[in-house]
Amino acid sequence: MKRLAKNTLFLLSSLLLAVFSSCTCKTDGIIRTQTPERPDGQKDVLELALPPIDTVRVGFIGVGMRGESAVYRYAHIPGVQIKAMCDLHADRVENCQRFLREAGMPDADSYAGSPDAWKAMCERDDINLIYICTDWIDHAEMMVYAMEHGKNVACEVPAAMNLEEIWNVVNTAERTQLHCMMLENCCYDFFEMTTLNMAQQGLFGEVMHVEGAYLHCLDQFWDEYEGNWRMTFNKAHRGDVYPTHGMGPVSQLLNIHRGDRLQYLVSMDTKAVSIPAMLRAKGDSSEVANGDHTMTMIRTVNGKTIQIQHNTATPRPYSRLYECTGTKGYAQKYPVEGFALSKGTVSPDDVPNYQNLNGHRFVDAETKAALMKKYRSPILTDDLEEHAKEVGGHGGMDYIMDYRLVYCLRNGLPLDMDVYDLAEWCSLIPLSALSIENGFAPVEVPDFTRGNWNRVQGFHYAM
């Protein structure tokens, strides 16, 4: 009866929150959404540190596609036990057992055969981390349920698809005082981490403008998504439906909710052409809401700007458009990876050819290699970087992401990314749609910390 009453109360509060947070108003031409008051007795989770967990005992929800590779990586991380795995299809769980056996680990308990099988896994007492790799439609419900049952949560991107879900996840993390991290692997790309360290050391001067994107033609992948969930979402929704690969790394450059915050955004999209044509060739005449290409411009409280783009429809080489523009230098990963620095930004002890630095062109290959070595991220060691590249996962960045999560949990440290990062980066999904559907109007970005965005000064890794 207590569990029933608790669940009923939670559902009621969620309904009220949904009604409240979905309300919008337009003043001075700016669309504003409602920010719910923080419930009495609830506090933020900025720099949340929990008691150290000697052994991180993991339960995986979804072990197809990304989930399978995640299980493989976790079998190579010290201090981990994989206690359980859940999937709609039992053969996928069995397929992943081989990674455990190869690593000398016992088989994990299997949950399968029911869309709700994951709930029983979350209710166990011997798991302290739930790792979610399902379709994004179910992410928020799973995160909330896991935290309500005392589990820290790590969830694939994007972790929440609308403001109601985002606020529910934020409130649950604050109420339970548990870690809730979105698995934004692009924050651990070696070039992006080096660029972040260079920015923190002042090599680019004051960072003024950043860019990020997800430009990835998915023509050869659409049919691989269980139940066609990704295409179904694109048919029904406009806006940037997958913004976090671009938003994550550039938000760290700008210290978002660590001294600055997102303030306003404006989004535009093209009409939908490529995906409807592809569907018609397959005999599907469905309407597609999402345009071929979406662009979002954001301005922060401190007067910085962000450009984010999304395109999974048209042929083009993969790109995240990662760019950092500062008053003294520039970094770019796509289509050419390089740095451009003004004279005087580095000393002869830093790099070769320092006297030839010129803000109009990239440094030469020798100088770039020296910068990558000198300003390697502080979270990396030679052994860790080598092992990450051996285990793999998008060149090793997935392994670094997972390793850091386990490292922080085992040492009782704040995680590299918190629930407010999750909220801010995912908020582009509903807010870009609001802008587009209202004549490309400016939209105010909520402060998901509810007033505490300036309390922490500067992004940093806990060590």
| pLDDT averaged residue by residue | 94
Percent helix: 25-40%
Radius of gyration: 22 Å
- What is the CATH homology-level superfamily of the largest domain? Dihydrodipicolinate Reductase, domain 2
Tell me the count of domains. 2
> Termini separation (Å)?
44 Å
Q: What's the CATH first level of the largest domain?
A: Alpha Beta
Question: How would you characterize the overall build of this protein?
Answer:
The chain is of the alpha/beta class and 463 residues long. It has 2 domains: 48-183, Rossmann fold; 187-379 and 419-444, Dihydrodipicolinate Reductase, domain 2 (2-Layer Sandwich). The protein has 15 helices and 16 strands. The strands form 3 sheets. Strands 15-14-13-9-12-11-10-16 form an 8-stranded mixed beta sheet. It has a 6-stranded parallel beta sheet with strand order 5-4-3-6-7-8, sandwiched between helices. Strands 1-2 form a two-stranded antiparallel ribbon. A hairpin with a 2-residue loop joins strand 13 (323-326) and strand 14 (329-332). Helix 1 (2-21) crosses helix 6 (163-176), helix 6 packs antiparallel against helix 14 (419-426) and helix 12 (382-391) crosses helix 13. It is globular and about 65 Å long.
